[in-house]
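Why does residue order matter? Because the sequence determines the fold. Keep that principle in mind as you read this record.
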Amino acid sequence: MAKEKLFCFLAFAITILAIFSPAWSVDPCEADIVHLIQYCYEFVQIKGPKIPPSITCCLVVRSTDMPCTCKHVNKEVEKIISMEKVSYVAERCDRPLAHGSKCGSYTVPSA
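Structure:
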C-alpha cells in the first residue's frame, strides 16, 4: 500500500511540476520511470518471483530509453521496484541492458 502511495505521489509531483513550470519540462527518462512503474509494476515489484512481463509492459519497455532511464533511478525508486527484475523484464522484452552497465545501484551481470 505504501509503495502505491509513493508511486501516486511521484506521478502527481511530476505532473504538477510540468503544469506549473512551463520553463521546466519533465525529463523523458523520468517520465519513463513513471510509465515503467505504472505498466510493469507487477513484473518489477520487489516482492515475489521473477515472472515474464505482459505485452503491454513490453510495449512500454520497448519505447523506453533504458540506459537513460537507468541513470535516473534513485533510492526512492529502488524502494518501489527491483532493478534486477527491471533487467530481467528488459531482456524478456528484447531490450536487454548492456552487461556491466548500471541501473540505479544494480550492476547488470556479465553473460
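Confidence is low (pLDDT under 50) at residues 16-24.
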